[in-house]
Amino acid sequence: MNAILSPKGIHFVEDFDYLVKENPEDDYWNVAGGLVMAIDKNGLKTVHRTWKDEDYAHLKAIEGKHKTYLRFEYKIDDDRDEWQHVIGPKEWY
Fold first, then answer.
1. Structure confidence by residue, pLDDT tens digits, 40-89
2. % helix / strand / coil in the chain, to the nearest 5?
3. What's the superkingdom here (predicted)?
């Protein structure tokens, strides 16, 4: 049986992580939240998704890692939403 893939959207995305340190002496940062912005063909950015980890809400966050990629969204057999992030010529997840 073949699956039916129905495209929902293709757009460039900017993905930001917000980082915190639980202890200022730590050598590492924890991801406390994020922001995903879709970029249209005219360069207009709209918020696609935001999230935050309530465990770190009391800590001051800085903007950390920033990624830009191409996002393909599609539906499988009219019942399951899926997506692929293309991050390089031969890299996706």
1. 889 999 999 999 999 999 999 998 878 999 999 999 998 899 988 898 88
2. 5, 65, 30
3. Bacteria
Those residues whose C-beta lies under 8 Å from the C-beta of residue 27, and which sit 6 or more positions away, are: none
Strand partners, 83: 73
Is residue 59 within 8 A of residue 22, CB to CB? The reply is: yes
Residue 14's identity, in one-letter code, is E
Alpha carbons within 13 angstroms on the beta-carbon side of residue 47 total 5
Q: How many alpha carbons fall within 13 Å on the CB side of residue 19?
A: 14
Q: What pTM was computed for the model?
A: 0.73
Tell me how many degrees the CA angle 31-33-37 measures, rounded to the nearest 5: 120
Task: Give the SS3 label for residue 77.
Answer: coil
